[in-house]
């Protein structure tokens, strides 16, 4: 399987935060930092309680996409791979809609949401470049750069999320 598909799979498993439907009509994605709490145990717990199910649902969807891509990668069916990539891109777009719909209270979980959203935007851009019929050498360079950025962001965000969950999921 190509490095690109591997990077997308890894991103999908950690960074996506999609849900089948938005969790609320309007969230506070653009909340200014001074309107959010800082180090409020109650707010962080409440925010994790709404963010974690979104991430868990996304991870379940991502596993299905990964399994499809692994299977298709073995037999090289480019048309089928493109169809799954299109579905995966829609999953990331849905994830961002779900993330945007959350009304968070804590600056700590808000920063995680922004990082996950940014990671999803990188994945969407990677999907768009992958799905281009005639990717140029410049497109391939951009894909490699986006893959590196995505993996770094994925690792950092995963570490932050794990740390918050370990501290506040008691």
UniProtKB/TrEMBL annotation:
Residues 1-21 form the signal peptide. Keywords: Signal. It comes from the Bacteria. This is Lipoprotein. It comes from Enterobacillus tribolii.
